[in-house]
């Protein structure tokens, strides 16, 4: 299966690794580490050297309780890094929900919009529809980042996530964006308990019925900490294992902090023939 984005038609017969570039002071895992432009630019270079296929650049933390930056703050954080990343030759995504940021990033040539709110912010869907040649990742989130982890409840988390994503794909199609430009993210950790997250992993194949590739982000998430007892900076092994499990269950893109470790693990996975088994 291929995925058409602004500049690239990405072959997803091989699982792809998306490297996270958080240009924020308060992200849950690496907040503040890459806030300066120089450190963020160097981080982009390093992730590509480690084997990342995609760079995902964001200027707003979506962890519970994070402060929402003013739009000019987000622009100032993101745009210099975005311009640098676009010149490196790899696919680049903008991690944002704001129509102003979406328009600026797409005008700069970004390959796809990665929106945790699935283009539900006022004006976001219209901003994408103005440039229907871009790619889009639609993610499921229950509530808003500040409150999403306050006792989330589902009758059936997989069914509800699937129905939500189906509706958002339809809304995007109605706005004139072709299905081949869309990938879907079940939103691990976004308005979900650890049990909800593990259910989504175990039944991930049910989301494949939507007919679009899955992008999944387990990297360093709290569900891994709850399972292993490890703090966020010691969850590399668990994150890599979760990425491999997601790929084995049909995910085509994994969003990760630890690119080199994930790339190496996927190389072993493919050489062992497990990738063939996953496609059969």
Give a quick summary of the entry.
The protein has 280 residues and is an alpha/beta fold.
Features:
280 residues; alpha/beta; TIM Barrel; eight-stranded parallel sheet; two-stranded antiparallel ribbon; 10 helices; globular
List the helices and strands and how they pair.
Blueprint: E1 2-4, E2 9-11, E3 16-22, H1 37-49, E4 54-58, H2 71-86, E5 91-95, H3 99-108, E6 112-115, H4 124-129, E7 135-139, H5 157-174, E8 182-185, H6 194-202, E9 215-216, H7 222-228, H8 236-248, E10 253-256, H9 259-271, H10 274-279
Parallel strand pairs: 3-4, 3-10, 4-5, 5-6, 6-7, 7-8, 9-10
Antiparallel strand pairs: 1-2
Helix pairs in contact: 1-2, 2-3, 6-7, 8-9
Q: Give the tally of structural domains.
A: 1
In CATH, the homologous superfamily goes by the name Dihydropteroate synthase-like
What is the annotated CATH architecture?
Answer: Alpha-Beta Barrel
The percent range for strand residues is 15-25%
Taken in chain order, the helices and strands follow as EEEHEHEHEHEHEHEHHEHH
Write up what this structure looks like.
- This protein is an alpha/beta fold.
- It has a single domain, classed as TIM Barrel (Alpha-Beta Barrel), CATH 3.20.20.
- Helices cover 40% and strands 15% of the residues.
- It contains ten helices and ten strands.
- The strands form two sheets. The protein has an eight-stranded parallel beta sheet with strand order 8-7-6-5-4-3-10-9. Strands 1-2 form a two-stranded antiparallel ribbon.
- The radius of gyration is 17 Å and the shape is globular.
